[in-house]
Amino acid sequence: MSIPDGKKPPAEVEHLEETSNVEKGQASGSFNGSHEVNVLAKISADEKALTTIAAVRKYYIAFLWAMYASVGAAIAGYDMTVSGAVVAIPSFRRDLGTFIDDQWVISASWQSGFNAGSNIFQALGAFATGFIGEKIGRKGSLLVAAIISTGAIFLQFFIKPHNFVMFFFGRSINGFAVGIFCTIASSYCAEVSPLALRGVTTGAVNFWIVSNLSNLIIQGTGNRDDSFAYRIPLAVQWVFPAIVLIFLPFVPESPWYLVRRERMAEAKKSSERLFGGTGLDIDMHIAYIKETIELEERIAGEGKWLDLFRGTDLRRTIIAGMVFVCQEMVGVQFVLGYSVYFFELAGFADSNAFRLGVGTMALAILGNILGITFTNHLGRRPIFFWGMVACTIDCLMIGVLSVIPGNGALWAMGVFVCYLLGPLGYCIYAEISTARLRSKTVAWGVIVNQIGALIIQVINPYLINPDEANLQGKVGWLFGGLGVIFTIWSWFGVPETGGRTIDELDILFEKKVPARQFSTYVIQDSDRAVE
């Protein structure tokens, strides 16, 4: 987090300089009474001075490093799509499949196993990051994830014919690395971004996940007769950990992590690399981080895993998980994972249905860009709530069309709306936590997201397949009904985190302000005073 350097009248400049001098004289201590209140209040006001575009121009170095930290998250989307797409490649089915009814097939149990292993290990990776991130920092965690991912892709690329176990472990171990990548990306973006950029950088994590070219690569190589038809798309995954490793020696460590470890000199040097030349008072920035952490620790103590489920932190933990549960229950996996299938049910030819499926990638990118762009202008809470409403209606309409044949193009709207909703979960869960529990809260969000996705991915085939429940489009009624319930919860449960600094969010949660009033509640200086 940084302090935008807005224009100030002379009196404010003088006050700021006086405050900074006090901080410089108390490098190893903490503020007390009015000094602490003045600093937190002053920085809270200054952080809201810049627009998003102005903040990108001014803090472009921090912005670019936040984008770099999210590159690893791109492997999450690529791994998910390419590993599913290679099953459609004839040579992959021939090398790993079983010959049944005059054709090579990959059994449904192994397909489910590949996906389940990846989801479970992503959750384990996120859980491990709660420890790793606090022990070796954001940079160290990225290093560990990049090394693990490189080795896991090796197992996938050099897979031996009919060795399902080798491919399973390759995907699963890579999932562990993906869990670390996603958790660290959200934490780092939230910690190094100015207030005006926080929604953009945290939401961009989801943008990196959905923005991949796997379908196009599969189209380019899938017609080959040799094993490179699937080995090349799998090998492309190496690009992401390679980028992480190349630039890792130069990335500044998160100042928030360094301050928590009481490495003040390193925290100052890191802040200078992130914000040097912007006019930011580095000493005040470090003092603000220190005071916010100490304020939280005086209120609730040092952050531990059990603290996620205690006091006001429990409410934050519930929100961090529920923003992903809401998306799963409103049918995001259902809409996005089975769009091609339902295009076919709507009457499109197989080739056209596939092209429409590829087109969803463009909608994904567009939806994410719009969702991120309007996050600061419209707010996190309104976009999330109305996105839930739209997805619920979409699922109900799919249910209607399953009874009365209609236009399958409704899926285009469904896919677009769901991707518009996507960045908000990553934005809210990264912002909602306290500074002392950020790694653990973000890890919890990733765990819940993966468990929810796993459950839906497992039950979906049984709901829609002709040899099972055969609900087909009627499953829209199920997700539409669940969508109504969770949309109501989102109205009462999801607060507006945009425009609020970390210390302000601490106050709002401590005072138990209802989610609907987060954006309008006026914080007084007396609210910041802690005895």
UniProtKB/TrEMBL annotation:
Topology in membrane: Multi-pass membrane protein
Coiled coil: none
Ranges for domain Major facilitator superfamily (MFS) profile: 65-498
Entry protein name: General substrate transporter
Gene3D superfamilies with a match to the protein in the record: MFS general substrate transporter like domains
Keywords noted in UniProt: Membrane, Transmembrane, Transmembrane helix, Transport
GO cellular component: membrane
Region (Disordered): 1-30
